[in-house]
Amino acid sequence: LSDGSYTLYGDINNRYGFQMDINVQGQNVYGSYQYDSQNARLSLNGKINSQGYATLYETDPSGKRTGVFRGTITTQDGLLNFNGNWSTPDGRTVYNFYCSEPGC
């Protein structure tokens, strides 16, 4: 995965559409995302390993951890895909998610 900025579109649980903006610098990944139905952006911060597995922690504007994205970042035809599970911080609620750059 190349360092840089990426904008991804997708959904959680095939219900909650969102736009995710992430920056990749080595193993560090940070950025934010916003549900299509909301105005507030949630911050993302985490790591990606050499196999493309990423863990991104979601926090609200007050700094409270509100969720975790865990999944694999891959490229297809030069476009980024991020697939896996989103969960609440306590892990009690888990949903599948999928997002990709436009054109995938």
List the helices and strands and how they pair.
Blueprint: E1 4-12, E2 16-25, E3 28-35, E4 42-48, E5 53-59, E6 65-76, E7 79-87, E8 94-100
Antiparallel strand pairs: 1-2, 1-8, 2-3, 3-4, 4-5, 5-6, 6-7, 7-8
Strand content: over 45%
Q: What class, by secondary structure content?
A: mainly beta
Overall shape: it is globular
Contiguous runs where pLDDT drops below 50 for at least 5 residues: none
Helical percent range? under 10%
Give the termini separation.
16 Å
Count of distinct strands: 8
User: Count of DSSP helices?
Assistant: 0
- As a whole number of angstroms, the C-alpha radius of gyration is 13 Å
Let me know the largest β-sheet: 8 strands, antiparallel, barrel
Order of helices and strands: EEEEEEEE
Average pLDDT over all residues: 94
Task: Give the neighbour order of strands across the main sheet.
Answer: 1-2-3-4-5-6-7-8
Describe the structure.
- With 104 residues, the protein is mainly β.
- Helix content is 0%, strand content 66%.
- The protein is built from no helices and eight strands.
- Strand 1 (4-12) and strand 2 (16-25) form a beta hairpin.
- It is globular and about 30 Å long.
- The relative contact order is 0.22.
Protein traits:
66% strand, eight-stranded antiparallel barrel, mainly beta, 0% helix, 104 residues
What is the gist of this entry?
The chain contains no helices and eight strands. The chain is mainly β. The radius of gyration is 13 Å and the shape is globular.
